[in-house]
Amino acid sequence: MIRAERQEDQTFIDTVIQSGQAHILDWWAELSASSKQKLLDQIRQIDFEQVKYFQKLLKKKSDHRTLPHMEPVDYIALPQDESSRRSRDEAKEIGERAIRSGRTGVFTVAGGQGTRLGYNGPKGSFPCSPVSNKSLFELQAERILATGEAYGVTIPWTIMTSPINDETTRSFFEKNNHFGLKSKDVLFACQRMLPALDKNGKLILNDKDHIAMSPNGHGGTFLAMRDGGVLDDADRRGVDILSYYQVDNVLIHVIDPVFIGYHIQAEAQMSSKMLKKHDPNEKVGHFGRVDGKLRVIEYSDMTEEDMKAQNPDGSLKYGAGSIGIHLISIDFVKEELRGGLTLPYHVAHKKIPILQTDGTVYEPESPNGYKFETFVFDALTDTKASVILEIRREEEFSPIKNREGSDSPATAKRDLNNYFGSWLEAAGYKIGRDSNGNVKIDIEIHPLYARTKEAFVNKVPKQLEITQQMVFNPDSE
Asked: 273, 260 in Cβ contact below 8 A?
C-alpha cells in the first residue's frame, strides 16, 4: 500500500489507483522526497475523468472517413478588377481607423521547441534572417514596433508559451530587452498540458517521477487568454480584435489593415486567411462547410477522391488552404468560454519516450503512444459571421517546420530574399535571379526603414550599388 504524508496527497494517490493507473506509482518507494513531490504535482494537474474520455476516443479512433455534405467555401479573392480594388481600399481604410484607435493586439502561438529543426530552444528564438540571423521573435517584434509607430499607437503583444518553454521564452525576451518594445506591452500566456496514453489507454511514464505530457494544442488559446490575464488586459486597453498567428511564419503580416477592415465590415467573430493549395497533396487543412457549418478539415481526414476533386475549370474543388492566420474578436472568446468551450479533441499517434521495467528510457523509432490536442480553427463552427481572405503565398506565408527540404530554414531565407528582392525590383533595380527565379543575393529590410513595398520605393536611393548582401536599417542612408 502506497502512503503519502499528507491526506491531500493520499487522496490523489487513491484517485490514481481507482482510475486503473497505479503503474505510474511503481517506482514510488525509491523516489526521493523531492521526486515524490514532483510526481504528485503532475498528478494534481490531471483530470482523470478526462483521461477516461480520452480512452473512449482511442476506442472510437478510425482512419479516413468521408465527411457528410461537405461543400467548398466562399472567400474574398485577390483583387482582379477595379471594383475589387475599391473594395479592398475601403476595407483598408476601416482597418486603419481601428488600428489608430487602439483596437488591435497581436497573439502569437509559440509553445513549441525547435526539436524538428535540431535546435535546442523555443522555436521563436530560432535565428532565420538572411544576413543578420535575427530570430523569429525579433523579426516579429520589429514589425509590431514599426506598425505602432506608423499608426501612433501601442500594440500589445501576447506570446502563448507552454510549460516546456515558458521560462526560456521569457528569459529570451528579457535578455534582448524585449526587442525595443516596452515590457508592459509584451504579455505571456502559458497553455495547459494534457497527458499522453499508450495503445491500452494507460498513462506513460518517461521517467520514474515524470508522466509524459504535451501542450493542449493551439485550441488552448482561449483558455490561455483567460488564464494569462489577456482578456482583462484587452479590456483595460480597449483592444477588441486580436491578430492571431503561429510563430514559425517568417513572412507574417502581424497587423493587416485590409484583413481587419473586412473583419469589421462583416461584424465577424473570427476570420481567417487562406491560400490556394499548390497541389492536392499539400499538407495543410482546407476550409469547407459540413452540414452548413464552417470547418477546417485536416488533410488527413480527407479521402483521396476529395483531395483531387476539381471544378469545371480544372482548379481544386477543395483548394482553400488553411494557414493558421486568424482575427479573433475578444467578445467571441468570452462567449466561447462562457459556453464551456467544447472544442473537439484530436488524437495524434506520436513517438513518445517511455520508461521500461528495468528503469531505462526507451526512445521509440515509430509511434507508440497518443497525444490529445484541440485546434483553434474548430471554433469557426460557432461563428455567426466569418471572413476568409485569400493571400499571396510569396508575400505572407513561409513557415519553418523541418530541418531541411520544404518549409525549412533554407526555404524561409529564400522566400525572404525573394520578397524583399521584389521591392528592389519595384524600385527599378535589376538583381540577379537563378534558373528557378530565386533572388541570388541576401536582403534584409527593417520595417522601421520601410514597412511596405510602396514606402520602400519612395524612400530607397535612386542610385544604389547592388552587392551580395543588402541591409536596410532605420539609420541607412
From this structure: no
- What are the distances in angstroms from CA 440 to CA 400, 412, 421, 423, 436? 20, 14, 9, 14, 10
Amino acid residing at 457: V
φ/ψ bin of 242: left (φ > 0), alpha (ψ from -120 to 50), beta (otherwise): beta
Reading the block at residue 56, the C-alpha cell is 473512449
The pTM assigned to this predicted structure is 0.94
Q: Is 221 helix (H, G, I), strand (E, B) or coil?
A: helix
CA gap 188, 171 in Å, rounded: 11
User: Could you tell me the three cell numbers for 287?
Assistant: 476550409
Query: Do residues 306 and 70 make contact, with C-beta atoms less than 8 angstroms apart?
Result: yes
User: Considering Cα of 411, then 417, then 421, then 423, what sign does the dihedral take?
Assistant: positive
Instruction: List the grid coordinates of 454.
Output: 510602396
CA geometry: angle 227, 165, 410, nearest 5 deg = 125
State the virtual CA torsion across 11, 13, 14, 16 in degrees, nearest 10.
130
**376 CB contacts (<8 Å, ≥6 apart)?**
109, 217, 218, 219, 221, 222, 244, 326, 343
Q: Burial code of 55-75, b = ≥16 C-beta within 10 A, e = fewer? A: bebeeeeeeeeeeeebebbeb
What is the mean pLDDT, run by run of 10 residues, along the chain of 477 residues?
A: 73 91 94 93 94 92 58 93 96 98 98 87 96 98 98 98 96 98 98 96 96 94 96 98 98 98 98 93 88 88 83 89 97 92 90 94 95 96 97 97 94 98 97 96 98 96 94 87
Residue appearing with cell numbers 527565379: 437
Q: In the chain, what is the straight-line distance between the N-terminal and C-terminal CA atoms, in Å? A: 76
| Residues comprising the chain, all counted | 477
Q: Where are the alpha helices (DSSP H) in 162-288?
A: 166-175, 221-227, 230-237, 257-265
Domains and CATH numbers, the chain: 7-45 (no CATH), 70-407 (3.90.550.10), 408-477 (no CATH)
Listed residue (474, 440, 450, 471) closest to 133, CA to CA: 471
3-state secondary structure of 365: coil
Distance CA 84, CA 118 (A): 44
CA distance 277 to 73: 14
CA distance 203 to 212: 7
User: CA-CA distance, 364 to 351, in Å (whole number)?
Assistant: 6
CB atoms within 10 A of CB 394: 13
